[in-house]
Specification:
The chain is an alpha+beta fold. It contains three helices and two strands.
């Protein structure tokens, strides 16, 4: 599983919007890896932030 898929899986399984720190803790990935994956997911519009600094899958 690549980093983007892992971040997306963490967000989907959480069921609530998560901060980047929470994503890092739940995924066990390095903060730089999570940041890079999230930037790509944002660009592809696969994740959205409806609450400031909290992210969730874009359904």
């Amino acid at each position: 599983m690549d980093d983007q898929a892992k971040v997306l899986q963490v967000l989907e399984s959480a069921g609530v919007p998560l901060s980047q720190k929470e994503i890092e803790a739940k995924s066990g990935l390095d903060p730089k890896v999570v940041d890079k994956a999230m930037k790509s997911l944002k660009k592809e519009e696969k994740i959205v932030s409806k609450v400031r600094c909290k992210w969730e899958p874009n359904h």
